[in-house]
Amino acid sequence: MDLDLNKLRKSRGNRLTAIMQVRDEEGGMLEQVLGDLSSFVDDIVIVDDASVDGTAKICRKFPKVAHLLTLPNSQFNKEWLLRKQLWELACSTDPDWILSVDADEIYEDRAKEHMRELLDQDQFDWVGFRLFDFWGGRTHYREDEHWHIHRRHTRTLVRYIPGYYYFYPKMDHHVPRLPLSYAALPGFLAELRVKHYGWAVGRDKLKQKYERYMQRDPDGIWGDIQQYRSILDEHPTLVEWKEEGL
User: Coiled coil located at which positions (predicted)?
Assistant: First the structure.
């Protein structure tokens, strides 16, 4: 299919749809994340991977959650399929832009302040942000040979282009959050940051996370086995987070 991208790109009036996959998030950050997202997105689309707690109830509390699909059976070990289902559900709403967010991520204030500028333009079709892995709490992020995702950009925001070919690699875990085919389109690397709090937990929960990783990927087929092992480092290198002005 031949696409005239110049006609598809809108420089004003774009709507922003956040997408998220969740599973058993009660007691975590889901409520805070949905509340924060509701302050700057137009709609939220969620796939619930067969949660057995109050996750779905939390999602329904937020008016901007326009679509919530709860799967009857977990597809946790087929992450590519979860990504695909979430993407297709989002596309069915005819969005303008899609923002992929995890249930433990918060965009810094500067990112939210500049979000509309990133949407309302006709020069690029995706945006990369810098993600920071907070560690052991909410004051410091980790930075060492195994934990440095913030040194590069992660594509989390894409313009929806009807008819454009998309694909996800068939990986059980660590699947890219958005279709890889978007990499062929012009993008923008924003010096804006995202706080990832998935590792901002105590020692006991870090150990539980380590055990889960080793159980589902013991040979490091889908990820870095050395990074898995480094989860248990007793003295990781941490850097204090500093807020930046708007």
Answer: none
